[in-house]
Amino acid sequence: MSIRLTIITPVFNGKIYIEKCLENVASQAFPEMEHLIMDGGSTDGTVEIIQKWMVNNPHIRLISEKDNGQSNAMNKGIKLAQGNIISFLNVDDYYEPAVLQKVLPIFESLPEPSFVCGNLNIWNADGSFKHFNRPDKLSLTELLSHKFEWPYNPSAYFYHKSLHEKTGLYNEGNHYCMDYEFILEAAKNTRILHVDEVWGNFCVVEESKTLQRFTDRQEEAAAEGRALREAAISKLNPSQKAELEQILSDFVQTKNVVQKQNPILRILKFIGI
């Protein structure tokens, strides 16, 4: 059967997570997929676990070799992907049940290239719930306004591989928000469709690169995000700039109305909180 979807998992020394990741994808029971594991040369037993799973799961494909970081591993995976639709699943994240059976039919009615995202649960390291990500405002100007949710984790979004022909690959020089940079480029080149269903789960575990990059280097990561937005805003045409200004104006007016209607917020604002 032909492969329509490639799920790419970059991993390096992820022994404590890899088996659950493999199980989560295998449980989707979707025959037209491959699970491409881009291992960076693990030495902790990760590779051996993957090889054990490959015996009875022909949809798993393993590439184990040294890479130059996460973006480099992601880009190598894109080039090797056999499917025309791509999803990234980090080793410590997971899909909701039967997500692939829901997602693939959606693409049948969409032009190529398309980008589709669902909602996302975000969990703390201790398993407690952290945040619900519902990115339903996804035009380029809405994303650049920085006032709305954007797709925080790839376990909740899928897109045509051919989109990279327009956006380029992931920026290997961007170490903090390469995914945000790609989403901005995607919004320039296609309409991002939001489906109001929970598709993915993002686990902020203590060992994860995501947690480290936004705690140890929070200011640097924020500055990189601002620089991306400012560069993109500078390239907007006049009508797009007017649209962005209107979004920001509407956001301020809505915020002020809410504060006027809520006496507690009025008091907090008065005392400077």
Care to give the gist of this entry?
The protein has helices at residues 15-26, 46-54, 70-80, 99-107, 140-145, 164-167, 178-189, 209-215, 218-234, 238-261, 263-270; strands spanning 5-11, 33-39, 60-64, 85-88, 94-95, 115-123, 129-133, 157-160, 192-203. With 273 residues, the protein is of the alpha/beta class. Strands 1, 2, 3, 4, 5, 6, 7, 8 and 9 form a 9-stranded mixed beta sheet that branches.
Roughly how many Å is the radius of gyration?
20 Å
The span between the termini is 60 Å
> Overall 3D geometry?
globular
Order of helices and strands: EHEHEHEEHEEHEHHEHHHH
Q: pLDDT under 50 segments (min length 5)?
A: 208-214
Number of strands: 9
**CATH-assigned homologous superfamily of the largest domain:** Spore Coat Polysaccharide Biosynthesis Protein SpsA, Chain A
Which range does the strand content fall in? Answer: 15-25%
